[in-house]
Amino acid sequence: MKTRAKKTTPTNPATARAGKKAKTYRLSEQKIADAQRILGAPTATAAIETALDMIVFRQELVDGTRAMLGVDIVSYDE
Predict the structure, then answer these.
(1) Rg (CA), the chain
(2) Is pTM beyond 0.85 here?
(3) Domain locations along the chain
């Protein structure tokens, strides 16, 4: 009797939780190496993830700053 192979989940639970998926990109080796060195990242993947996190954070700062326009900030000392 033949049995079907069961679908398996990724062996790394952290990867499964984060929804990570293997991708292929054509990137400059020099840019990756520079980013990895500047960021102190142990791997190229870590450097790319950190750089992307920084871009998302930058947008959050911009959005927060725009939301604050026109808001009076009062010191507790006043």
Answers:
(1) 22
(2) no
(3) 27-67
